[in-house]
Amino acid sequence: MNLYPYFPPGAHRDIFGALTSNSPLVLSGVGNISAKGYFVGDLLNHQESRNVFWIANDNRDIYELRNNLPFWADKPIVALDNLLAENQDDYRVTEMIAGIHYGGGKIYLLNHKDIHLPMPAYAEIAESGVMVTVGQEMRTVEFFNKLIQMGYRPSADVSLKK
Known about the structure:
Blueprint: H1 13-17, H2 33-46, E1 52-56, H3 59-68, E2 77-80, H4 91-102, E3 107-111, H5 122-128, H6 140-149
Parallel strand pairs: 1-3, 2-3
């Protein structure tokens, strides 16, 4: 349930008028997660934005934000906590890079300790994978042969494993 409509619109209009597209918005000294969520919800309702990247202090903050933001904003939320734990590939990194490329309009929650991690460029993801688009015609045998050539193998699990 989005609580934003129950609050006065444009409460921060003077602050938002000073923002430029080339500068990040830094929230400091705001009382709690709910107040920050309300502020960001007000910003998203004031101006159109493609993606929001929220750098949180730690994974606990990401957990609280993921649970609190739906009360203030109607955008999909992608929590990127524990990124690349134990040196494993993380599908959420690919989802984020593809979301940035296609414009998505999501809120990405990142831990500040993870922003130094190397992220692939969209071109690297596109070259190393199989791109499937809506409405694309494909031959099933050729598609699965390509996956097998990439190192995937049949699995009893619901998802494919590499």
